[in-house]
Design a protein that fits this description.
This is ABC transporter ATP-binding protein. The protein is α+β, with helices and mostly antiparallel strands. The protein is built from eight helices and 20 strands. The strands form four sheets. Strands 6-7-8-3-9-10 form a six-stranded mixed beta sheet, with helices on both faces. Strands 11-12-13-20-14 form a five-stranded mixed barrel. The model has no long low-confidence stretch (mean pLDDT 92). The structure holds adenosine-5'-triphosphate (ATP).
Amino acid sequence: MGLESDLFCSNLVRRFGNHLAVDHVSVDIPAGTFFSILGPSGCGKTTLLRLLAGFDRPDSGDIHIRGERMNRVPPNRRPVNMVFQHLALFPTMTVGENIGYGLKRQKVPAAQRRRRIAQVLEQVGLPGLEQRNPQQLSGGQRQRVALARCLVLKPTLLLLDEPLGALDLKLREQMKVELKHLQKAFGTTFVYITHDQSEAMMMSDRVAVMRNGRFDQVAPPEELYREPATPFVAGFVGDNNRISGDLVAIRDGLADIRRPDGSTVQGRVAGELELGQPVSLFVRPEALVLTGEALQTGFSGAQARVKTTLFDGANSRVEADSLGETIYARLPQDGSAPRMHEDGPIRLAWDPQLARVFAAEEG
Ligand SMILES: Nc1ncnc2c1ncn2[C@@H]1O[C@H](COP(=O)(O)OP(=O)(O)OP(=O)(O)O)[C@@H](O)[C@H]1O
């Protein structure tokens, strides 16, 4: 356990019948971290969060919060608060009463309550709104009141269960940035669960990618993006293309892969590989260069057919087909892309150092 550890879990297990919903999860989260748990539906995120909050008990393993073992501590005695997707502000109470509710239960005197409510409203950018009703606020403002209601209690950990899930797209984009700023301003450790990789990547200091009850990788967002530890992480975090084939050679850390038509492509070896085995090469859309014909020295390339172009300003892409595999490439808007028409041939090239090769997985 690190000295400044706010949350330390070792070998946490939660079973439902034969199913391991949380499968030997260990993690050490330093104080002040924005930590996200990212994974597809059903991977065990909510189950894990409920163990941390104390709503549920692990079958084995330990939970320590700031050095204290929590396994037998009931939820209301843990230094933890939780924000849910459906905010559940009390509709008949004012904003001030909503925020003061927990303080009142802790028997904080009225004058001190008023001061702390005013202070936290100021901190979340809603000064002076104590007397409003929650119905008189916008969705984003209600979200900030819900956060203020937790943060005013100064928890060691704030657990957030997909809190942006119910908001419309534009507000969600805005709240991502706000949440990140608020977390830094308060310095509270956030444990945030989501299935939305862009939320996790944009806000977090560290992200755990969860699958089937386990953490595949725990790393800062950039590292997940650049050095995925598993093919699942490579496919789940950020847009990625997958090209399949058999491994025919490894030289200087680069793998040669033979595709079904006999052509070969190259990428950097990213896992344990054996010659002859089926492998997947992952290469990101922005690493692909569209070329007319000649390849740059040292580049790898694949022949493809244009399916369609998808214009979206700076994020414009071309969708292509290469031996039945769909590949997306960034489409530069500076006039450097070759002319292309639907069903026309195109050559996709990349620096093999930017591609990652893993043993093929099912699915
Ligand atoms: N009380 C329970 N009894 C039996 N099985 C459960 C129970 N709670 C969860 N599960 C199972 O455990 C697995 C993990 O569920 P969990 O709700 O933690 O996933 P999740 O990652 O939060 O998914 P989502 O993003 O859809 O909320 C699922 O297969 C789920 O069906």
